[in-house]
Amino acid sequence: MGTLTERFLEHLAYERRSSALTVKAYGQDLSQFTSFLKDAVGLQHPEQANDKAIRAWMMSLMEQGTGPRSVQRKLSSLRAFYRFARMVGEVAADPTTLIDPPKTPKRLPEFVAERPMEQLFRTVEWPVGFEGLRDRLMLELLYGTGMRLAELLGLTPADLDPRRRTLRVLGKRNKERILPMAPPLVELLRNYMDARGRLTGAPGPHDPLLLDPDGEPVPRRTVQRRVSHYLRAVTPQRKRSPHVLRHTFATHLLNNGADLNAVKELLGHASLAATQVYTHNTVEKLRKAHQQAHPRGGAIPSTNEHPDGSGL
Questions:
Q1: Catalytic residue among 148, 196, 226, 264
Q2: What architecture is domain 114-292?
Q3: pLDDT value for 136
């Protein structure tokens, strides 16, 4: 019949229809945990472990240099295993319910600085013709409105109101919001719509806004590649996705004094907590300015100057 671990992996593969990579990862985590139990605790099978044994394994992993996120993932494997073990009656209680995952450092959203974004729209050469016009519009919309990639791909000409300089997007949970457009973006849209109207097949107002030259909707992967290509021309950072432009939109607004609640509405966040992550970038910028400019901001006094500024 096999060990409980083998039965669990078969359950993942054949009943849960998990991918081969997922099954392999869970199997490796359980094998590693089982080896630890045998060597360090004297137990033969993971179903014999309690919460103390699991904590000891987690501590061992971190002492060996395993990062908090990797330990969290391994703990998730154990949680899934013990849920299965309870379901089939092999354990009376799940020991992982007593364990908190290790804290992970919060990742700040990556964004592009203001000067490179200015260079992008002032100095980068866009391809001549329809594709260049469309590519510039993609980046102007992402950076100028903060919309998500899925929202961009869902736009149709019917969603645009050039007279009021607004556009309508359908966000997560089918929540609709109205976004403002700056005059240069409105002008770019007008030029693009003229070129779009000359494509073969005469695409209509309810067809996707962004099209290939053959009149087909622009694939998601094309937008990702084009955004990465143009950002590479102005920034060396590794992350150059459409979502980075959304982060850039929010960070630049807050850096220039925008109200946090207004940014929340523009981004379509359900709660203010989701928007507050962008204030960390702003606070970090203020902290650096304080350190560099304030007499007690942390700057090291020069060798010929007394800390009280007297020069003695």
A1: 148
A2: Orthogonal Bundle (1.10)
A3: 97
**Catalytic choice (7, 73, 168, 269):** 269
The single residue of 73, 168, 243, 280 carrying the catalytic annotation is 243
Q: For the chain, what is the largest distance between any 2 Cα atoms, rounded to a whole number of angstroms? A: 84
Whether domain 4-98 has CATH 1.10.150.130: the reply is yes
Identify the band that residue 303 occupies on the pLDDT scale cut at 50, 70 and 90: very low
Delimit the domains of the chain by residue range: 4-98, 114-292
Respond yes or no: is residue 243 known to be catalytic. yes
Q: Are 11 and 53 in contact (CB under 8 A)?
A: no
Beta bridge partners of 312: none
- Assess whether 148 carries a catalytic annotation: yes
Q: Decide if 198 is catalytic.
A: no
- 278 in active site: yes
Q: What digits encode the pLDDT tens for the residues 285-294?
A: 656 666 666 6
Alpha-carbon span 167 to 147, nearest angstrom: 11
